[in-house]
């Protein structure tokens, strides 16, 4: 039951964005910047964004050596280059837009650990640098001298540095997006689960968190943007999106000095770790149980947890005491190809989804691209 005032002021908009992750908020902000007088509403089911944007590891990364080599198996050279460029430019643009301090950004460099099996990648290092040179004007990857100083287990035979990577705080990035969205007059309503979008009619049906589990909200908009990433199938059945869960473990503050800093990758980028506030943040390893992780449930896979704990104990900090403090999962979205899906899907509706493990770097730019698409409709 809604009041006259609620019906008059709260249900009609120029643009409704579903999902308030990096992509949803970026899309709303870019659209509002293009059309300052437009009324823009963002609908979010959680109190906080409840997908990946505030659950991730905060790696501001463009791709490790073995990740890029792996991409060559599935993509053309031009596609791989375009993806690296998108990530690189995306990172540059958020640093410029929000300021490094507001993102908690630190340019600490990226590193990749290579074991015996992965060592062959070093042969390809000069070739990959050559390929990336037109974009970066200098070598991206180099082999670290004296990697033993980093204190990893003997099975780590080499460490490769990427000088174009850094790290940020996803909570601060989200705070910056909230602040900007608010300052340009975007309305964000949380606790609203969208159940249906009429893509041609511009109708969004939702369930109010304070309601009784029934569809009781009917919003109307001239344009709709679906930015629900892994959770898109419910609203757009043809999305062909594969959810991919990611686990992160965080240790208690370590009582020894960490002999390295930066963002670290292993196993073609599937495993990653960094230090934060004197703690070890370690995550990934989806490749240990691909099938099990095709899930939209925020649960912990014991097989993956145990794999990560073993890596911490045996490879990252051999013979050092680690006490785990907390753990969480987030859900990513994947598809057959490793690039975002930005498309018009109805007379009044567009989508921008399938961000994979790259949303920190490309979310803002994807929002910009979606706003351009919206402005052409
Ligand atoms: C564990 C983990 C680690 C990661 N590490 C990194 C990293 O280091 N670097 C990097 O670049 N990327 C990383 N990523 C990926 C990155 O976080 C994502 O690519 C990015 O956050 C995707 O943003 P998004 O806005 O598309 O999706 P999301 O952040 O998932 O946002 C979608 C939003 O839509 C909302 N929603 C869904 N359905 C509905 C509905 N029906 N009604 C209303 N709201 C709805 C959700 O609640 C959610 O808030 C990681 C992801 C995970 C899970």
Please render the helix and strand layout as text.
Layout: H1 4-9, E1 12-18, H2 22-34, E2 40-44, E3 59-60, H3 65-74, H4 77-98, H5 100-103, E4 110-115, H6 121-136, E5 141-143, E6 156-162, E7 166-167, H7 170-183, E8 187-190, E9 192-198, E10 203-208, E11 215-226, E12 242-251, E13 263-266, E14 271-276, E15 279-284, H8 302-316, E16 324-334, E17 341-344, E18 349-353, H9 359-376
Parallel strand pairs: 1-2, 1-11, 2-8, 4-13, 11-18
Antiparallel strand pairs: 3-7, 4-6, 5-6, 9-10, 10-11, 12-15, 12-16, 13-14, 14-15, 17-18
The structure holds flavin-adenine dinucleotide.
Summarize the structure.
The protein has helices at residues 4-9, 22-34, 65-74, 77-98, 100-103, 121-136, 170-183, 302-316, 359-376; strands spanning 12-18, 40-44, 59-60, 110-115, 141-143, 156-162, 166-167, 187-190, 192-198, 203-208, 215-226, 242-251, 263-266, 271-276, 279-284, 324-334, 341-344, 349-353. The chain contains nine helices and 18 strands.
Write structural notes for this entry:
The chain has 9 helices and 18 strands. 31% of the residues lie in helices and 28% in strands. The protein is globular and about 70 Å long. The chain is of the alpha/beta class and 377 residues long. Strands 1, 2, 8, 9, 10, 11, 17 and 18 form an 8-stranded mixed beta sheet that branches. The chain has an 8-stranded mixed beta sheet with strand order 5-6-4-13-14-15-12-16, with helices on both faces.
């Amino acid at each position: 039951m809604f009041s006259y005032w609620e019906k008059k002021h709260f249900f009609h908009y120029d643009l409704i964005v579903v999902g308030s992750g990096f992509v949803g908020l970026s899309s709303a902000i870019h659209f509002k910047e293009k059309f300052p007088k437009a009324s823009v509403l963002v609908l979010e089911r959680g109190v906080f964004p409840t997908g990946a944007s505030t659950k991730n590891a905060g790696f501001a990364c463009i791709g490790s050596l073995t990740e890029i080599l792996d991409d060559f198996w599935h993509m053309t050279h031009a596609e791989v280059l375009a993806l690296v460029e998108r990530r690189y430019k995306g990172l540059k643009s958020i640093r410029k837009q929000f300021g490094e301090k507001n993102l908690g950004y630190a340019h600490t460099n990226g590193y990749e650990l290579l074991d015996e099996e992965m060592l062959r990648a070093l042969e390809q290092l000069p070739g990959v640098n050559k390929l990336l040179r037109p974009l970066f004007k200098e070598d991206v990857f180099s082999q670290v001298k004296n990697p033993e100083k980093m204190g990893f287990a003997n099975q780590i035979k080499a460490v490769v540095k990427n000088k174009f990577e850094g790290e940020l705080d996803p909570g601060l990035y989200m705070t910056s997006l909230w602040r900007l969205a608010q300052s340009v007059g975007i309305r964000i309503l949380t606790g609203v689960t969208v159940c249906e979008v009429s893509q041609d009619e511009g109708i969004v049906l939702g369930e109010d968190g304070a309601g009784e589990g029934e569809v009781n909200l009917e919003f109307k908009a001239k344009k709709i943007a679906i930015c629900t990433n892994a959770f898109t199938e419910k609203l757009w059945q043809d999305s062909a999106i594969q959810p991919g869960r990611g686990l992160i473990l965080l240790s208690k503050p370590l009582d020894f000095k960490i002999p390295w800093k930066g963002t670290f990758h292993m196993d073609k980028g599937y495993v990653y770790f960094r230090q934060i506030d004197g703690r070890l943040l370690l995550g990934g390893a989806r490749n240990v149980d691909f099938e099990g992780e095709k899930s939209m449930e925020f649960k912990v896979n014991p097989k993956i947890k145990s794999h990560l704990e073993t890596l911490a104990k045996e490879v990252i900090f051999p013979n050092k005491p680690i006490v785990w403090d907390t753990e969480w999962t987030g859900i990513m979205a994947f598809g057959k190809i490793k690039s975002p899906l930005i498309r018009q899907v109805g007379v009044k509706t567009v989508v921008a989804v399938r961000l994979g493990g790259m949303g920190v770097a490309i979310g803002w730019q994807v929002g910009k691209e979606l706003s351009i698409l919206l402005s052409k409709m």
